[in-house]
TrEMBL record, chains A, B:
Keywords: Lyase, Thiamine pyrophosphate. Belongs to the XFP family. GO terms for molecular function: aldehyde-lyase activity. It comes from the Eukaryota. Residues 604-805 form the Xylulose 5-phosphate/Fructose 6-phosphate phosphoketolase C-terminal domain. One of its GO terms (biological process) is carbohydrate metabolic process. The lineage of its organism: Eukaryota, Fungi, Dikarya, Ascomycota, Pezizomycotina. The keyword Transport does not apply. This is Phosphoketolase. Its cofactor is thiamine diphosphate. It comes from Staphylotrichum tortipilum. It holds the Pfam family XFP. Gene3D superfamilies: 3.40.50.920, 3.40.50.970.
Length: 812, 812
């Protein structure tokens, strides 16, 4: 359908066609060995999909040997295996430090078969030993209840990339090689995956990779041709377009195309070798000269038939080279004896009896594998916890904001915390990076640039010297793609380092699914004994909903917390520090932790400060507490509990207490503040949760609670519906009401402003039913007045942000 | 930093450099006019950002004329205006039908100024009249409390793309031109936006656009050079790379680069004209021949300085052509009198007194605009509700699944419903499309292909004839990018048509943020009087969590409902039909509705069927109800209420009733089923919600309720925490427990299986404390036995899926 002039024959079938030609690095003997190795590996792949008994086909294949339910994906396996095994040759030849990232969906059989052939699998899981019974177990567990998945899950030795959700192989790979100058991440990209948005933009990662300080990614785009039921876009455009696309992305593409195995061995071996030498040449040039540059990094385009080496047709229908080879290639072997025979013939064609004589892979094939940690299935980088060193951390107390009278002065909590981050960057020059989608400066974290600038390998212009903060060797990673930033960070952490993502709160939903998947990875990793704990994934959210008044409705969405709260309590933590010292304490805690997803929500504007550092530490350690300095109940039963969670909601809640005390100086008010959101849920459901006894000590079981919350109010109800006295809980939060507003107006629309909260309290206290009416009127009047003034001027009246707590200790 | 050989001068400054050369379509007089028009438009843009008084600068500019809080983005405005106004010439010259999509973030001033100059704005909003006072109001309202936003929000005439969240301009544009053969969508893509994943892959949309039946997108990549605080990737790669990238994406790139306004006028005018003629030529060729093909569609790369025509420097710091021009270009005009003067000089440089003499734009400038609906700000396509025709719908009752004994037989609900969809496709050949990320066949909707195949404009291979279901003119849109599919669907709907997205449940989180943004668009549209209602965005989720046992943990996430439930009750609807006839009824309802986001969750496997069509209609209309055929309370007070929501949870809940009745034949059980999730919430909070009286009639306020839910259980608690008797509500659902399991095992892990539910019921009924113990033991034993059998065989025992309701009416 393309422009007629550009039509190109792009069938995956035929003798090898490749960019690198006339080098035949393999001897005839080597070709035979690699051919055997390929067969052995393909055999294992089919075995995983089909067999629960008779693993070596020592007996004729019968139905009883088959798994009852056939699951697994064959389609992309052959191409992945082909790449992996030919790269092994180069690892040995050049003593390379490499990992393999399997991007195509359900690609595990390929890498599992390699881990088994390399011996790693049996080392890690001794029950899957290198003998007939071990192989039987190895086959049976695959996609079998209680067994292992068809993705490269945490159980897979050598994996840092599960690939359950598609799109992140390249960003994970780049994350892994940053600050690992000798590492090469061989990264298979499925042509299905390549259609996703996150993958499509992640190719640009080369603009952020420094050939002196970072390693290299060698992407292999696998043009398998088909997805589940459709051809892939990249397999059906012209050769010229495909080549141009990669030149455009900044790569030098090398094609290896065909189905003839013998010629493909030479083509793949020579192409991979050429690419490795190119990588080494670029690195040497940059490192010898000390001048980082952005070369045209190599990318391989591997076009092989889907289900390569399988039957081209089954009956009259296409199989190899078509989407029917995507998953289980022959599905009806239980019911169709003819097809069972086809399968048996196919499997025997891989010669298991010869290649696994005695149940163990032939020694001369094993000799093709690297050894020890050079095996990609055993590289410690892919069990990053092994490499993880604790961050060198300055004492966060040294960055304390001086707080005299509580709520008596303002400071920029975020800007202050940036000093702490800056020094962490300085102390960990190869171990920590800050990530963000072009928002770090906007988020008031620019002081970090004093210790590490933004990595930039694109062109430099004259203006850049004027505050551009760009450098080839920087520590801050900024690309306008939350997906890429998150993917880099995940790869960086999973390979043993530390990091932090900062992002606008409203657009963090862009990576809901990525964070979900990372939570799932962490959760499963806890069950894998040999995986060491990795640094937590830390997400700092700012530009929060309550200060998105001027940006309007599209920028108002605090719902990421709901997504995170659905994940396993073993791995998620949510903190909403109310002020600057609490922010420091929370960040210190998060950056020291491991195996969590920590979400910290804090506004970036200047804010009232409440707690001196020592009190902040106590408050954050407890995660929730009564604030006596703003309370008037002094041990007596309170009339009302004014609770808050989040810096801006806390500010308004305190101002509401102030208003209430102005009108009712004798009111017994208890002020409760929540930093650690999961304190609200039962200790049975989350390790941070309070017991009901602890809950009642704070909230009683009979007092009205006016809870001002940062996010959607229903999240608090969801966490507290079982609590004693939960019927007294009145939660305010963002209710999806907003437009172009002032902060006051936005708060009023959602009833989180001080006036609304004070009126809420009056309404809920039975004792104020009568005498509260007048005060309520006044509050309403003050609210309307402030509102009108804001409408007229376009800014809120100064008395709102100028509010300070003026009472003595105990709020009197 | 690039390869030294390829370094290219890519400054945005200087005389025009363009691909199309030696054609100078504009006369000197025309250049002068366009120059004036440009100035008038730029003046309006600055006016919106700065002024609340003195709109025409009739007086010297003083602080009191300024808005108190300065908001808005100037950076991308000039380039957008330049494109818009030069395209106007071609609209008039060739009588084009066109819309303008503004991709760059906060790009509204550019399009608002055009709408005002074209007169549309004053027609729609008479208070912003074409005189001094009207202009003052027009200025003041911008980014002002109670006013309009800095994105192309629903209030913006001519907009179908708000651009609050970046990345969707191209997919929206393609969605709008599908089945609009004469429409051209001129689409500005910001170079910031271009870094996002969704945008990066959406360029491939051309592989799904048929030049005979569809219109054309003319993308203009605006190389503004900078994001908020960083250079953009695409502005800092070599010219060759940039050109290759677009050739690779399948386009013919045309460059227009420079800052010299006079030469840029000629370059832009001639380039746009060339591109329009190319589009017309391709369309003519395909339409005359009847042979659709995929041409190299034109794309324009417009490189102009950020903040073009502003001061190059402010004091010693770069402004024009640097990121400091991104937002408000001079921020301290309130405090710095010198800078206020700079601003005034700058604004007067645009000659407002001459161009808006008498407060109205000069007639000869207005004459440059198209008229009536040819104005891009007034094209009815951008108010799609005007064009929307109801779908032609077959009677869904004709597709009813025959249901004899309730829960007595199984059928494929999804496969059956596909017949209904197929006939909708057939009846609406230019008005309805089905979208999905390569999952339509997997989702059992393949019967749709009988009426409309999958659109495919890539190459065709021999295998495609073997069940490929591809065609250049199809009705099903499949690309492995949820982002692109969703963007296409949004664009298709917003321009007046109908559609449905089908997707795997686990990966719908990929587009959480897009759906959020669409909800917000719909919600705001309700407040815009002149916007007509558009078709609902319908999302059909299948491959649900409970049948993702074999795909493992990464495929288990039903949390999209939590994200949707946070949006405004005015626009979101969630349905979980329990069986095939209910699915038909729900789909019929959703496809007829308007201005909602409808989410329907249904499994794709074969299922027990419960309700004959007439009962299904009643049940779905009520949205919730008692199922007497599975109840034994017969008007008496029930001992327990077994409630369910979702097809698989319903199945297990009914089986649990069966188990309970086996052990306790005299038990009074009430069976309640929920189709419409928002029935659970109070009618105060959602228009579908039940009153408390209605609630009590179903659930009582004192009976234990065992509620089996499709998604995370907390969502039900969140919706029902206020209900009478909510302490009796025990909700089961997915609790983030899963691995490679059988369906039974997955259910048991999450306590949603029949055995667990029956035991739950026993535990909650005080009357069964004693006599229930034995039954409980038996249930536990049966559960363990089934579980072990599944572990051994790899599939669940047949008696589980073979379960049928065997009791008489009333469950006896």
């Amino acid at each position: 359908m393309s422009d007629a002039n550009e039509l190109a024959s792009i069938s995956a079938f035929g003798p090898a066609r490749s960019t690198v030609q006339d080098t035949n690095p393999l001897s005839k003997d080597e070709i035979e060995k690699y051919d055997d190795y390929f067969k052995a590996s393909l055999y294992l792949t089919l075995g995983m999909i089909y067999l629960r008994q008779n693993p070596l086909l020592n007996e004729p294949l019968e139905k009883k040997h088959l798994k009852a339910r056939l699951l697994g994906h064959f389609g992309s396996g052959p191409g992945q295996i082909f790449t992996y095994m030919h790269f092994n040759r180069l690892i040995t030849k050049y003593d390379l430090d490499a990992i393999f990232i399997s991007g195509p969906g359900h690609g595990a059989p390929a890498v599992l078969s390699q881990a088994y052939l390399e011996g790693t699998y049996s080392e890690v899981y001794p029950e899957c030993s290198e003998d007939e019974e071990g192989m039987r177990r190895f086959f049976k567990q695959f996609s079998f209840p209680g067994g292992i998945g068809s993705h490269a899950t945490p159980e897979t030795p050598g994996s840092i990339h599960e690939g359950g959700e598609l799109g992140y192989s390249i960003s994970h790979a780049f994350g892994a090689v940053f600050d690992h100058p000798d590492l090469i991440a061989v990264t298979m990209v499925g042509d299905g995956e390549a259609e996703t948005g996150p993958l499509a933009t992640s190719w640009h990662s080369t603009k952020f990779l420094n050939p002196i300080t970072d390693g290299a990614v060698l992407p292999v785009l696998h043009l398998n041709g088909y997805k589940i039921n459709n051809p892939t876009v990249l397999a059906r455009i012209t050769h010229k377009e495909l080549e141009s696309l990669f030149v455009g992305y900044g790569y030098q593409p090398y094609f290896v195309e065909g189905s003839d195995v013998e010629t493909m061995h030479q083509a793949m071996a020579s192409t991979l070798e050429h690419c490795v030498l190119e990588i080494k040449r670029f690195q040497k040039q940059a490192r010898d000269s000390g001048k980082p540059f952005r070369p045209r990094w190599p990318v391989i385009v591997l076009r092989t038939p889907k289900g390569w080496t399988g039957p081209r047709k089954l009956d009259d229908r296409f199989l190899e080279g078509f989407w029917r080879a995507h998953q289980v290639p022959i599905t009806d072997v239980h019911e169709n004896p003819e097809h069972l025979k086809v399968l048996e013939r196919w499997m025997r064609g891989y010669e298991p009896e010869r290649l696994f004589a005695g149940g163990r892979v032939a020694a001369e094939l094993r000799a093709l594998c690297p050894t020890g940690p050079r095996r990609m299935s055993a590289n410690p980088v892919a069990n990053g916890g092994l490499l993880r060193k604790p961050l060198r951390m300055p004492d966060f107390r040294d960055y304390a904001i001086a707080v005299g009278k509580p709520a008596g002065s303002i400071a920029g909590s975020m800007n202050n915390m940036a000093g702490f981050l800056r020094d962490i960057v300085a102390l960990n020059p190869t171990n920590f990076r800050l990530f963000g989608p072009d928002e770090t400066e906007s988020n008031k974290l620019a002081r970090v640039y004093e210790a590490g600038k933004k990595v930039w390998m694109g062109e430099y212009f004259e203006e850049d010297a004027d505050g551009g903060n760009l450098a080839p060797a920087g520590r801050v990673m900024e690309m306008l793609s939350e997906h890429t930033c998150e993917g880099w960070l995940e790869g960086y952490i999973l390979s043993g380092r530390h990091g932090l993502l900062n992002s606008y709160e409203p657009f963090i939903h862009v990576i809901d699914s990525m964070v979900n998947q990372h939570c799932k990875w962490l959760e499963k990793s806890l069950e894998v004994e040999w995986r060491n704990r990795v640094a937590s994934l830390n997400i700092l959210l700012t530009a929060v909903v309550w200060r998105q008044d001027h940006n309007g409705f599209t920028h108002q969405d605090p719902g990421f917390l709901d997504v995170v709260a659905n994940k396993s309590p073993e791995v998620v933590r949510i903190y909403l520090p109310p002020d600057g010292n609490c922010l420091l304490s929370c960040m210190d805690h998060c950056l020291r932790s491991s195996n969590y997803v920590n979400v910290v929500v804090a506004d970036k504007q200047e804010h009232l400060q409440y707690l001196p550092m020592d009190e902040a530490i106590v408050h954050c350690t407890k995660g929730i507490g009564i604030w006596p300095q703003f309370s008037t109940d002094e041990g007596a039963a309170p009339d009302v509990i004014m609770a808050s969670c989040g810096d801006i909601p806390t500010h308004e809640s305190l101002a509401a207490i102030d208003l209430l005390l102005t009108h009712f100086p004798d009111l017994k008010i208890r002020c409760v503040n929540v930093v650690d959101l999961f304190k609200l849920i039962s200790h049975i459901d989350h390790p941070h949760g309070l017991t009901d006894t602890e809950w009642v000590a704070l909230f009683t079981d009979d007092t009205p609670i006016i809870f001002n919350f940062h996010s959607y109010p229903w999240l608090v109800h969801r966490l507290t519906y079982k609590r004693p006295g939960n019927g007294h809980m009145h939660v305010r939060g963002y209710k999806e009401k907003g437009n172009i507003d002032t902060p006051l107006e936005l708060a009023i629309r959602n009833q989180t402003d001080r006036f609304s909260l004070a009126m809420d309290a009056i309404d809920r206290m039975p004792g104020l039913k009568k005498r509260g009416a007048e005060a309520r009127e006044k509050l309403k009047g003050a609210q309307i007045k402030a509102r009108n003034q804001a409408f007229e001027e376009g800014i809120d009246p100064a008395f709102l942000s100028g509010w300070r707590w003026t009472r003595g200790e105990g709020g009197k």
